């Protein structure tokens, strides 16, 4: 005789909120928001480069954070776009 199947209830919104996972550093967005309020458009990308040996084994994972910001010149004093970028091994 088979045991009756019991349907599992979907997690509630509160349970999903409590279960949210965070990986690595916790990003503080205050500086980025301040830049955006002053007219900068920003992007923050995370990239991984998987370095493998000739036999296909994973040897190393290189983590790279890439940040960019751009804005139109203030007051029409110049043509073009102001642009800055930075690359780092960690978000800090």
Structure, described:
This protein is an alpha+beta fold and 92 residues long. Helix content is 16%, strand content 36%. The protein is built from two helices and three strands. Strands 1-2-3 form a three-stranded antiparallel beta sheet. The chain is flat. The chain starts with 12 loop residues before the first helix and ends with a strand.
Name a few traits of the molecule:
flat, three-stranded antiparallel β-sheet, 92 residues, alpha+beta
Task: Give a quick summary of the entry.
The protein has 92 residues and is of the alpha+beta class.
Task: Tell me the layout of helices and strands.
Blueprint: H1 13-19, H2 30-37, E1 41-52, E2 58-71, E3 82-88
Antiparallel strand pairs: 1-2, 2-3
Rg (C-alpha, Å): 23 Å
Helical percentage: 10-25%
User: What distance lies between the first and last C-alpha atoms, to the nearest angstrom?
Assistant: 59 Å
Major beta sheet summary: 3 strands, antiparallel
Q: What is the number of strand segments? A: 3
Q: Note the overall shape.
A: flat
Strand residue percentage: 35-45%
Could you give the order of strands across the largest sheet? 1-2-3
């Amino acid at each position: 005789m088979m045991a009756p199947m019991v349907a599992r209830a979907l997690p509630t919104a509160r349970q999903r909120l409590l279960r949210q996972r965070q990986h690595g550093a916790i990003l503080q967005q205050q500086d980025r928001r301040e830049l955006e309020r002053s007219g900068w458009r920003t992007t923050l990308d995370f990239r991984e480069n998987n370095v493998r040996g000739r036999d296909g084994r994973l040897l190393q994972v290189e983590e790279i954070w890439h940040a960019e910001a751009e804005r139109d010149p203030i007051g029409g004093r110049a043509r073009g776009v102001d642009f800055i970028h930075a690359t780092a091994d960690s978000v800090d």
